[in-house]
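Researcher: Go.
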Amino acid sequence: MLKVAEGTLNEVDLVMWIVEATTFIGAGERYIIDQLKRVKTPIIVVINKIDKVSDEDVFKAIDTYKNACDFAEIVPVSALNGSNTDELIDTLLKYLPYGPQYYDEDTITDQPERQIVAELIREQALRQLDKEIPHGIAVVVDSMKERTEGGVWSATVRLPIRLLFIPCLPAESHANSMPHLAGSMRGRREKPDCAPHSPVFSCL
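Model: Structure:
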């Protein structure tokens, strides 16, 4: 993944590097800086978490990264409370070229429903089991069908969906987390912002 990211630095329109509001530059940051010095793509440094430090510390962090490399822009923000995010968006748009409109204005996503459902379950697994489940978890949807039987669902859901899936884990040691996943998520109903238009019922 690292090699892929490094190989595309000169193939994209803009590079955005997100760092924390600190003057400390460790070995990892120095490695990234050395890689960025070799590219001709405009680079924007985003200093995040400014809500956790004083204004003086923010200015010191800006000076630190300004002296480290010739970045196109350095923008301090707080993703938590949204501080200065409007400025970040304007800065990004300034460097991005206009391109063709590949999708209609009302197109929300180009992903199939099955992929969206899989991501919904993956999101809940990471949210509820952040201290147990690995971030490498993936979800494969084996079957997905509309439920037609009556019961409590028929009164509240327009098109109930029953989902069967098998989590794919990168290592056998992660398998011990799955009983906890089943206990925490069995019968959860998630309402996605886009298709499918009904809640997703996960059957583990």
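Model: The chain is about 35% helix and 20% strand.
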